[in-house]
Structure formats: structure tokens, C-alpha cells
Amino acid sequence: MFLLAALVIGVAGVALTRRADMLADRTGLGEAVAGAVFLGVTTSLSGTVTSITAAAQGATSLSISNALGGIAAQTAFLAIADITYRRANLEHAAAELTNLVLVTLLMLTLSIPLLAYSMPSFTIWALHPASLVLVIVYVAGLKLSAQVRATPMWEPTQTAETRHDVPEEEGTDAPATAWLYTELAALIAMVGIAGWVIAETATVLSAQTGLSQAIMGTLFTSVATSLPELVTTLAAVRRGALQLAVGGIIGGNTYDVLFLALSDAAYRDGSLYHAMEGRHIFLIALALAMSAVLLLGLLRREKSGAGNIGFESVLVLAIYAGAILFQIALG
Fold first, then answer.
1. Cβ contact 284:117 at 8 Å
2. Most CB atoms within 10 A, among 106, 223, 247, 282?
3. Is residue 240 part of a domain?
4. Beta partners for 124?
5. Do the domain assignments include residue 104?
6. 33-75 confidence digits (pLDDT tens)
7. Cα(first)–Cα(last) distance of the chain, in Å?
8. Measured between alpha carbons, how far is residue 166 from residues 22, 24, 29 in Å?
């Protein structure tokens, strides 16, 4: 059931890409913002359901590890997408000011759980104030991203390999916008149900195999529920929608931090942030480090490296591989 749910998530992720790309053009949001909203939120839905379900059952370690482990996995997926794009370094070709804002927003939201963890365990109706702050910062960050796209104060240097976000011409047989939203809603429902199955089966698998909830969340549920991001990113790169690919990953990562706020609301025994352990703090630091490397790559815009991938992709994969080995060693 775990593998079948993961397969459903992967297949639905492919279908989501085309709809998100078309809606990016029709709404005028652009691929980066549309990637953050349409792909980032919808493809992360399975992970949201997994974390909330686990938190409601008291499996706090599984809930937190799933949310934070997904950020690291999805950043590594972007490096894999860079390898598949052979023309140039993906971060060079997909130059977009909005993506820089989104990475900065991600790093800001990641700092909020750390601040909550270091503060006293204060809650209102079993909800920590940091959860509300997370939601406010996320919404304000998306609004800022849209404003930056509409009125940018600087532009990236244009090169022969820079890919422009220009709306594509649609044929006469293109589906109506209302129908696109209907299809999107149906796919979201599929992904959400599959995420619930992932959470239910992961809890049982953790007990039957003897694996800790942290390992289960970091290595299995986070990767399984992140499959839509991998599939949609590779599909977007193949379609040439490079800003959509990068924005989908970064936006999905930022939304993943909200898992903690939603899970905190589902967890009724106090503050979820004060249920965090040392390995959860490690996952936050890991996500911050990988995001910082990605931001440096987006700013540096190395045109090509070994195999046309930039230094950031090599470093991201190396950091992620080292972190996985460390988590396995901890048991």
C-alpha cells in the first residue's frame, strides 16, 4: 500500500505540470510564482496530509522528520534536474528574480521553528504563536514575490543560454480555464488521499521493521511524498519551462515548512516545536545549508561546469548524501 500510494503520487505529479504551466500563462503570474503556488502547494499536499495525520496520532518525530526531510530531498531533486538539462547549468538558464526572493523566504521560514524551539513552551489552545507567524510570513512572502515579478528593480544579465518566461501560444483545442482548475482539484484530491495512505502505512512499517520514526520520516515518507516534485521538475525541464521547474521546488520547500504549523494545530499535547529533538534541528540546519548553496548558485549563475552542471548541484548532492549516511549511522 505504501508503494502503491507513492506510485499514485508520482503519476498525478506528471499531470499537474502541464496544468500548472498553462495556468501560469493564463493568470499572468509567471512560471516562478505559479510554480510556487500551483506546483509547490499541490505537489506538497501528500506530505502535508502525512505530517498532519502523524501529528494527530502523536507520532511527532515522524511528522517533523517528514516535513523537514522533504525539503532536503526536493532540493536534491533540483540538482538531478540540472543534470538532465544538457544545454547549460539550470540555475544559469532559469535566471529569475522571483526565485531569489523565494529562496530567501524559505530560509526565513526555516529560522522560525528554531526560534520557537529555543523559546519557552507557550501555547494558546495547544497552538504555539510561531505557527501563526509562519503562515503570515509565508503569505506575505508570496505577495512580495508577485510584486517583484510585476515591478522588478533589477534584471539578470541576458546570455545565449538564458531562457525567457514567455507565454506559449495555445491551440484551438486548449481546455477552458475552468476545466483546468477542475482537473487540478481532482489531481490534488488524488495526491491528498495518497498522502494519508503514506502516513497510515508508514506508522505501521516503523513499528514492524523496528526503524525509528525519524528514519522513516527522513528516508521513506519524505522521499515518497516528494515524488511529485521530482516528476514535475523533470517534466517541466523537458517542456522547457525552466523557471517553473526551479520555482516549483523552491515554492514546495517553503510550503513544506508550513507542515510544522499545520501539524502543530493537529498535535493536541502542547507545542510541536518543543517535541523536536537534536536530529530534527540537524534537518533544519541541513535544509538551511542546502538552500544557501542553491541561492549562491542562482546568484553566481555559473554557465557550465562538468557536464554542464554548476558547483551548487555538486555541493547539494554531496551534502544530501552525507546527511543521509549520518542519519543512517544514528539509527
1. no
2. 247
3. yes
4. 127
5. yes
6. 666 666 666 667 777 888 898 899 998 998 898 888 889 988 9
7. 24
8. 11, 10, 11
| Count of positions (residues) in the chain | 331
The pLDDT tens digits of the residues spanning 234-269 come to 877 877 777 777 877 888 888 889 889 999 999 988
In a domain, 39, yes or no: yes
Q: Which amino acid is at 161?
A: E
φ/ψ of 39, rounded to 5, equals: -85, -45
pTM score, two decimals? 0.81
- pLDDT, tens digit, for every residue of 121-179? 888 888 999 999 999 999 999 889 888 877 887 777 777 676 655 555 555 566 777 88
Separation CA 144–CA 105 (nearest Å): 10
Measured between alpha carbons, how far is 295 from 100 in angstroms, rounded to an integer?
A: 7
As a whole number of Å, the CA-based R_g of the chain is 19
Cβ 260 vs Cβ 64: under 8 Å: yes
Nearest to 308 by CA among 79, 88, 94, 93: 88
Yes or no: say if 291 and 107 are a contact pair by the CB < 8 Å rule: yes
